[in-house]
């Protein structure tokens, strides 16, 4: 998970490059094992210094998203995305379905409904902000309504990851995770709130609830008709704190994890139809019966717009 160094000399430029590269990992532009463009090429593309690119790549390498070796560049670490047999083929006939493409498909509808169960909202935040920019730029037609529900683990839940190896009582990495989660919730909220405030989308509703569950997988439900599910693979890797201290830890692969696509089709008994409907019912039951809003002194909690 990103620890974010937006305030680390480069600020907005660092964050802009980091967000763009993470979105490319999340939507499959840079697939597992693929080599990233060189530092000079990335610096020219984004109009930033090589130092900024180097810091972004070092940050991503620290998180286990990429591996960098001197003289051989950087390669993507992580899973591949697998469409289910019933999944619709993407333009160009590749058959590859990604989180980015499904978020874009959802935002192309008059009403957008997204239900998400995840460890943090990092991947979703990147893709929704891309759609928000497209709406403001007139690239896509703005929907009439956007409704987002996020289920995240409770702050007081002792998570099995991330944590230092051999020291389950050291909670610094979990505090770091919650800090990251809050940051992405703020930017996600701002992206949606601004669409409404600027008059692009008449109705926006975003709600966040917490559950006493440690996610072993992430789930995205799109307009009640499609779903993406992906497991969190547990790995050992070093995590660098903002203080500069490096900790050997158990963590999970989030961005870049394998995502499997399911879609409701004409056969109510097909694997895709059964999965989407049962997963939607599962999500609704968690939301209704076992999720809670955070305490008022733990912002952000439930954000309701419109």
UniProtKB/TrEMBL annotation:
The keyword Membrane does not apply. GO terms for biological process: negative regulation of DNA-templated transcription. It holds the Pfam family GntR. Residues 68-81 have a biased composition (Low complexity). Residues 68-95 are annotated as: Disordered. It comes from the Bacteria. The keyword Protein biosynthesis does not apply. GO terms for molecular function: DNA binding; DNA-binding transcription factor activity. InterPro entries: Bact_HTH_transcr_reg (IPR050679), Tscrpt_reg_HTH_GntR (IPR000524), WH-like_DNA-bd_sf (IPR036388), WH_DNA-bd_sf (IPR036390). This is GntR family transcriptional regulator.
């Amino acid at each position: 998970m990103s620890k974010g160094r937006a305030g680390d000399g480069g600020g907005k430029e660092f964050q802009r490059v980091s967000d763009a590269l993470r979105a490319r990992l999340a939507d499959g532009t840079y697939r597992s094992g693929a080599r990233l463009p060189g530092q000079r090429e990335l610096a020219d593309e984004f109009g930033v210094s090589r130092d900024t690119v180097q810091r972004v790549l070092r940050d991503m390498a620290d998180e286990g998203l990429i591996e960098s070796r001197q003289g051989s560049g950087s390669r993507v670490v992580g899973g591949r995305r697998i469409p289910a047999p019933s999944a619709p083929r993407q333009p160009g006939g590749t058959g590859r379905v990604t989180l980015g493409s499904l978020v874009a498909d959802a935002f192309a509808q008059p009403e957008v409904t997204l239900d998400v169960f995840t460890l943090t909202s990092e991947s979703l935040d990147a893709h929704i902000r891309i759609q928000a920019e497209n709406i403001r730029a007139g690239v896509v037609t703005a929907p009439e309504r956007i409704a987002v529900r996020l289920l995240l683990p409770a702050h007081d839940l002792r998570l099995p990851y991330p944590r230092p190896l051999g020291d389950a009582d050291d909670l610094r990495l979990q505090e770091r995770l919650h800090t990251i989660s809050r940051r992405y919730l703020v930017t996600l909220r701002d992206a949606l709130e601004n669409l409404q405030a600027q008059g692009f989308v008449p109705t926006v509703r975003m709600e966040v609830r917490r559950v006493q569950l440690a996610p072993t997988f992430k789930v995205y439900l799109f307009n009640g008709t499609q779903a993406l599910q992906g497991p969190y693979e547990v790995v050992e890797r070093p995590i660098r704190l903002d203080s500069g201290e490096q900790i050997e830890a158990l963590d999970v692969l989030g961005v870049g994890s394998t995502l499997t696509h399911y879609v409701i089709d004409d056969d109510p008994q097909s694997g895709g139809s059964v999965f989407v409907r049962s997963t939607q019912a599962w999500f609704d039951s968690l939301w209704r019966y076992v999720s809670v809003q955070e305490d008022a002194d733990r912002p952000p909690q439930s954000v309701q717009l419109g």
